[in-house]
């Protein structure tokens, strides 16, 4: 117990010296250097690491992940990483090679293949064979059964699809796994736990913080699921067309009615025949909205809309206009919901 007879200034100096001596005596706890691939993954890792450290983002906001050219600072982030969280080679085939060269000793976690992740096979054709709500039978292209989940999907059953890749369309290996799995918040909920347990194993001293942060993030996602379900419920049967087929995880989770995609790949313009087919779908299925994406040619959307009463909006699966950080992921899902509902409701 401090000697109360000593002046307060002396007692404070004693306490300061004691803390300094303890700090010197105890070994420093090194927080892992963590790198991530895309902004949604960076956001989830940032949530788990909040108060401990910050992950490095390798693929900058607004850039296409399919064929990204890293800057020297981003390559250095991989080289210095103890842990790398990424979606997987299905989204960034080039990154697997970079990890082998730059981070061979780092712990590499491909979240798309983490236990409990719900996966869907790529759709070779979005709607033209299974228009309207017929495409919501929740079975992938390889004939596997639908995911089993309740209204909010708070189970961790993963839908397995054939991992053997078919022909490659501009960075996406169609015929394999669709990598846009972050657009199902139930996957993000699962990934928070995977991230927390990985970091807890690498950094046991901060394990309670990682786990507490993950639980808080999961509670936020529970609320987000309920919010989105309530928002889309009045318009979920309205037909719409997307620019490219990146949204099926969101569509299946919330039973939305996508009836076509303008582009069947990320880097090549659709053929005139395909555009004509999409225009027919607009009329046949009473399409309410045709959505562009900020990275792609808006003139193609104008071509589809010409002479129709359909409205137009903009969707972005990577949230290129959202600030990176812990709040990015819930903001992305809310933005996607707001833009879908606004256009479909005509507001």
Describe what you observe in this structure.
- It contains ten helices and ten strands.
- Helix 2 (39-49) crosses helix 5 (185-202), helix 5 (185-202) runs antiparallel to helix 6 and helix 6 runs parallel beside helix 10 (328-345).
- The longest helix is centred in the middle third of the chain and has 26 residues, at 207-232.
- The model is unreliable at 22-28, 128-158 and 160-174 (pLDDT under 50).
- The chain starts with 7 loop residues before the first helix and ends with a helix.
- Strand 3 (83-86), helix 4 (93-102) and strand 4 form a beta-alpha-beta unit.
- It is of the alpha/beta class and 347 residues long.
- 41% of the residues are buried.
- It has a domain at 235-345: Rossmann fold.
- The protein is globular and about 80 Å long.
- 39% of the residues lie in helices and 11% in strands.
- The strands form three sheets. Strands 2-1-3-4 form a four-stranded parallel sheet, with helices on both faces. A four-stranded parallel sheet has the order 8-7-9-10, with helices on both faces.
